[in-house]
Amino acid sequence: MQKKVNVFKFGGASLKDASAIRHVGEILQPFAGDSLVIVVSAMGKTTNALEEVAHAYWHGKPDEARQKLHDIHQSTTAIIQELFAEVPEELTASINDLFVSVEWALDETPNEEYDFDYDQIVSLGELISSHIVAAHLNAVGLPTSWLDARDVIQTDNTYREGWVKWPETEERADRLVPPLLKETNFVLTQGFIGNTSENYTTTLGREGSDYSAAIFSYCLNAEAMSIWKDVPGVLTADPRIFENVSKIDRLSYREAIEMTYYGAKVIHPKTIKPLQNKSIPLYVRSFIEPELEGTFVTDDAGDAYPPMVAVEPDQALINISTRDFSFVAEHHIKELFEHITTTRLQVNMMQNTAISFNVVVNDIDDRVERFCTLIDENFKTTVDRNLELITIRHYTPDVVESLRRGKVNLLEGRLPLTLQMVVKDVPVMRRKES
Ligand code: ADP
Ligand code: ASP
Ligand code: MG
């Protein structure tokens, strides 16, 4: 019988430099006899740096774009030289080819669609890291095949947010991955990237490598998926923002979906659903302390949870009212949602009164402006920006109270298990020196 596959995902923080990559090799040693599909993100902050390349290029600054790309090439080369006593020739060739292909692209006139150019450039990060990590694993005695994720993950052509074509992707995963796993126990591939039917590269949305791992897990009917993070597991809140957080040992798929959708950044929100559909367990584990158990996400995780908090920054509250002073009726809401869809606004909260409709959305690029322009003929809008959406699952009065301190609450919604508030900071009043 064929061995069950496990899927592991390593994010940018776990691959930030040569010693981090060595550490990933050490984490993988005990699994040498298992069939593993390993999904990697770009190293460290490479994706942010590549976004700057794409931005400069598309805004008519090709020299700046070339310089930024050159800097990324140099830091990549430095990592490779530190990692290998003798750099494998094929690795040098692959990395050089990848950089040259983007350098050439920078000589061309930008495409009409920014998102298209963005994906062709920014996808470089995962291609680079996957070649380096695969070469390292082979060098330390862990035979590993390199797989181009674009041969498997097929998407539509919504650049920067490709929608997965599941039947095509499943067919390719089934056809391409098992033969590689027969050759080597480990198959290593890229997170974040996919391919259109015209053979152009797409990306799945920032932080999308967790989602890629879930796509592979689903298509390969994996035994389990593990994502290795810089935290001990899923915590009651982001430790970068809150003190006294604690680890949750077991979490249901539903809780995980609710928390990640509203901004718990530890797992990409699209990750859970494919796993839930096939009851594939998810482990969120620490790459810093790999011997610890982490968080186990599964079907039946009980329902006694402590209060859990997710904070989503960069929110905009759009207050909409009709120009003809009529009530906001169903046909208005229909029109508004059509424009919400075309401008790709993500609505996190909404509330209506007789004469106004309020939506809270992620304030990305110029989407809010485009939406307001599109509805301008029939609706008046006012926009409040730089807001935070705080979501508390299993809320208690004291937690709500502590989170409200020093904030103005602009909108609030309560369900039995979830409380959400849209807040902005208020400067703390102090008595003037006399
Ligand atoms: P990756 O390297 O895989 O991309 P991320 O940086 O995206 O990992 O996710 C890990 C980070 O998520 C942590 O460093 C932590 O600051 C943040 N985070 C936000 N909410 C939570 C939470 N509820 N539990 C744990 N970590 C959280
Ligand atoms: N490298 C991509 C990003 O930084 C995808 C990921 O890391 O998940 O957004
Ligand atoms: Mg991430």
What is the H/E string?
A: EHEHHHHHEHEEEHEEHHEEEHEEHEHEE
N→C terminal distance = 83 Å
* CATH homolog superfamily of the largest domain: Acetylglutamate kinase-like
Helix content: 25-40%
CATH topology of the largest domain: Carbamate kinase
How would a textbook summarize the main sheet?
8 strands, mixed
Shape field: globular
Structural class: alpha/beta
Gist of the model:
ATP binds at residues 240, 265-266. This protein is an alpha/beta fold and 434 residues long.
Describe this structure in words.
By secondary structure, the chain is of the alpha/beta class. It folds into two domains: 5-229, 3-Layer(aba) Sandwich (Carbamate kinase); 308-425, VC0802-like (2-Layer Sandwich), CATH 3.30.2130. The chain is built from 13 helices and 16 strands. It has helices at 18-28, 46-58, 62-83, 89-107, 114-122, 124-139, 166-183, 209-219, 253-261, 272-277, 330-342, 367-375, 397-404, and strands at 5-10, 35-40, 144-146, 186-190, 193-195, 201-203, 224-229, 250-252, 282-286, 295-298, 308-322, 347-352, 357-362, 379-393, 407-414, 418-425. The strands form three sheets. The chain has an eight-stranded mixed β-sheet with strand order 3-4-2-1-7-9-10-8, sandwiched between helices. The chain has a six-stranded antiparallel β-sheet with strand order 12-13-11-14-16-15. A two-stranded antiparallel sheet has the order 5-6. A hairpin with a 3-residue loop joins strand 15 and strand 16 (418-425). Helix 2 packs antiparallel against helix 3 (62-83) and helix 7 crosses helix 8. It is globular, with a radius of gyration of 23 Å. The mean pLDDT is 95. The protein binds adenosine-5'-diphosphate (ADP), aspartic acid (ASP) and magnesium ion. Magnesium ion is lined by residues 11, 207. One of its GO terms (molecular function) is aspartate kinase activity. This is Aspartokinase. Residues 5-286 form the Aspartate/glutamate/uridylate kinase domain. Pfam families: AA_kinase. Keywords: Amino-acid biosynthesis, ATP-binding, Kinase, Nucleotide-binding, Transferase.
